[in-house]
Amino acid sequence: MARPVVAPRWPRSAVLSLLLAAIAQTAAAQGMAGSFAQLQVLVRPGDTVTITDASGVETEGRIAELSISTLALVTGGTRRELSEDDVTTVKQLWNDSLANGALYGAAGGAAFATTGIIVFRGEGLDAAEAAAVLGIYTAVGTGIGVAVDAMIRRHHVIYRRQPTLGVQMGISPWLTRHHQGVLVTVRF
């Protein structure tokens, strides 16, 4: 009679710790990069960014080249090579999401229409007219909300240099036109 092969049991805390570390690194890569390798997922050559260098000076320019260790920035026709240690933050100008403006505008328009319907219900307003008023004001509110959000542009920090304290390990996606994979970095 054959005996089943039993794999050794890993302590749950070790497996859970590894899983949480991987999830935390992935989440960090989606919102704000902590390394140039992660930054490559968020920007590409030709994008305009504002960098703050180690001395606190902000410079706006276009990315000429970005590798896991250097960023080349072109400002006023001058190319400047920066190492990861030279850059403290990278900001990029982003448009505000139109979805929240549409939602807030629709809610405001619907609230305005509902208030009007309640106030004027004694004026002979039937259900079809009330529905039409609600629909029209909701649509107008949605349009106003989208228009307001379309005008909002903000600088978002997309990279912040991580302090180097002891040994650091990072896991980030590696996505280029020709390569896909996972980049594991260890810093001392």
How would you describe the overall organization of this protein?
The strands form two sheets. Strands 4-3-2-1-5-6 form a six-stranded antiparallel sheet, covered by helices on one side. A two-stranded antiparallel sheet has the order 7-8. Residues 22-30 have low confidence and may be disordered. By secondary structure, it is an alpha+beta fold. 39% of the residues lie in helices and 32% in strands. It has two domains: 14-96 and 153-187, SH3 type barrels (Roll); 98-150, no CATH class. The N and C termini lie far apart (52 Å). It has four helices and eight strands, in the order ααβββββααβββ. It has helices at residues 12-31, 36-42, 98-119, 127-150, and strands at 48-53, 58-66, 70-75, 78-83, 87-95, 153-160, 168-175, 180-187. It is elongated and about 75 Å long. A hairpin with a 4-residue loop joins strand 7 (168-175) and strand 8.
Chain-wise SSE layout:
Elements: H1 12-31, H2 36-42, E1 48-53, E2 58-66, E3 70-75, E4 78-83, E5 87-95, H3 98-119, H4 127-150, E6 153-160, E7 168-175, E8 180-187
Antiparallel strand pairs: 1-2, 1-5, 2-3, 3-4, 5-6, 7-8
Helix pairs in contact: 3-4
One letter per element, helices H and strands E, the order comes to HHEEEEEHHEEE
- Could you tell me how far the N terminus lies from the C terminus, measured between alpha carbons in angstroms? 52 Å
Low-pLDDT residue intervals, each spanning 5 or more residues: 22-30
C-alpha Rg, in Å? 26 Å
Q: If strands are numbered along the chain, what order do they take across the biggest sheet? A: 4-3-2-1-5-6
How big a fraction of the residues is strand? Answer: 25-35%
- Count of helical regions: 4
Mean pLDDT: 79
Helix content: 25-40%
